[in-house]
Design brief:
There is one protein chain. It is built from 12 helices and no strands. It has helices at 2-7, 13-34, 41-48, 52-59, 62-83, 90-107, 109-115, 126-144, 152-171, 182-194, 206-216, 225-238. The chain is mainly α.
């Protein structure tokens, strides 16, 4: 009896999954109602009908629980993003992805707050990293099409920063007075800085060519690791736009 009490009824896999589901549901509801500050060990344990040590056994610490809540909230959204077939126009595909991200952030402010918490570990939450990986692939498609003016990682960082800032600004504004043009204007401004028109018949600029070739580099099986490293460095230098371009 003592052993079962200490384990809080988590002797089997089904028990653990049930407790995990209850905790995630309780934590999600607490955050939705009162924000991240409402998430305390005592409140979650009471709402989920578990003992406090169960939280630590299943999630490690509060950060682990927050990450799990964010992943739980993002799961459907990320699965839907992965399932969308690539748009024939990679720029249009990224445009649609931006709009979907803004809409999700506004509809799920608590999940947005967790995945973009200022002061969180620099590595980011697993949910945020999964989203960035999808964004990086979308930007990579634009680069391989010869339409990216800046290095892929810079474009990813700029698009992510602008998207997060747009959602944060809109969430900080009363819904009835939000500017409906803020997101499209921010999106178009960022795209104008990193994306170009389809290549003209006479070719594209050197920087765009270097960015595109660099995006293809990972699949260049004919190169040795050393050659790939050197080529990546050289293309990185060439991918910086010059005044002439």
């Amino acid at each position: 009896m003592l052993h079962r009490a200490m384990n809080d009824g988590l002797d089997g896999g089904d028990d653990r999954q049930d407790a995990r589901a209850r905790i995630l549901a309780a934590a999600s509801e607490l955050i939705a109602d009162g924000g991240v500050v409402a998430l305390t060990t005592r409140a979650v344990a009471k709402a989920a009908a578990v003992q406090a040590p169960t939280l630590y056994r299943l999630f490690g610490d509060k950060r682990g629980l927050l990450n799990a809540v964010a992943e739980h909230g993002l799961a459907t959204f990320l699965a839907r993003k992965r399932a969308v077939p690539p748009h024939p126009d990679p720029v249009e595909g990224l445009r649609e992805a931006w709009d979907a991200y803004i809409a999700f952030g506004l509809a799920h402010p608590a999940v947005f707050a967790i995945t973009n918490e200022i002061g969180a570990p620099a590595s980011g939450s697993p949910a945020m990293l999964a989203g960035l990986a999808i964004l990086r692939e979308r930007v990579g498609r634009i680069a391989r099409a010869g339409r990216l003016h800046v290095p892929v990682e810079r474009a990813v960082a700029l698009i992510h920063a602008a998207g997060v800032g747009t959602v944060a600004t809109l969430l900080a504004t009363d819904e009835d007075v939000r500017d409906p043009q803020l997101s499209p204007l921010a999106r178009d401004a960022v795209f104008a800085a990193v994306v170009g028109d389809p290549p003209a018949p006479d070719g594209v600029g050197l920087a765009s060519l270097a960015v595109g070739l660099r995006a293809h580099l990972a699949a260049a099986a004919a190169l040795t690791p050393g050659e790939r490293l050197l080529m990546n460095e050289l293309l990185g230098r060439l991918s910086e736009p010059t005044e002439a371009e």
